[in-house]
Amino acid sequence: MTTEVFIEVLDNCTGCNSCVEVCPRYLFSLENKKAVITNFDPCHDCGHCVAVCPVDAIIHKRLIIDSLDVDFPKVEKELNYKNTLSFIRQRRSIRYFNKKKVTNEQISQLIELGRFAPTGHNARKVAYTIVKEREQIEDILNEMILFFKELQKKVSSPLWTILAVLAGKRKSFNQIKRNMYRINSHVNHWDKGIDKVFHNASTLILIHAPKKTPAPVEDCNIAAQNILLGAPSLGLGGTFIGYLVHSWKRSKKIKEMLNLPNSHGLHACLAIGYPKNKFKRYVPRPEPKVEVWGEK
Description:
- By secondary structure, the protein is an alpha+beta fold.
- It contains twelve helices and eight strands.
- It has helices at about 20, 50, 70, 80-90, 105-115, 135-155, 160-165, 170-180, 180-190, 215-230, 240-250, 250-260, and strands at about 5-10, 30, 35, 60, 125-130, 205-210, 235-240, 265-275.
């Protein structure tokens, strides 16, 4: 069985390393000062490699259907509907931050963005915990890696497979097994000192709410999206870190470390910092399925 070849790196590649740094599936590497693709299979068609390339040296055949400029239009600066859509499309999940620290004023400005997000029943109970020292972030990451390693043992254990079946959790257990390649990658990278969980971020924003509010999950994640949409206006970027949310739910040690109020649930975690790379183009997204009731 041959692997489908749908990404091409052109000869004008300058070896800037941007595609290597932004690819969430680690498909690229540099050889002889040129980008090469080491594995096509995990690609999830995010388009970051095309959007970040400063010399248009990457052709993604599953995404570039009409032309580079049609499918990956250059970033514009406007407002009105077109500008609003442009503003929304400029949001990228940042997976490579530089070491510059986020200021207290910027953190306050980010929280202000979340403050005006809608909440279920207008509860306004969203709360924020800020982790702003890299050493603290790495302490959390170390505990997460220990949790991941325990998870690796359980997933590979026949006993845990049997227990999952007996508990009626075969489906969720199999889902975890299917996604273990990402956990394994995070563990292997951190063993080498490379942070692929928080992406070297200088700040974490933990977004939580009382469990008894009408819509705590939605409230926290809408606030998080407000923050991510507005972060580029401050020169910042960010990304959701679901791994910490799931680890908090399942690890007593991580719960103790984060020390959130007992009545609260953690529903979003954002890694925030200064992006190492600047995206030059928007990325495409598939057309949504829309059904309109009442039209004949």
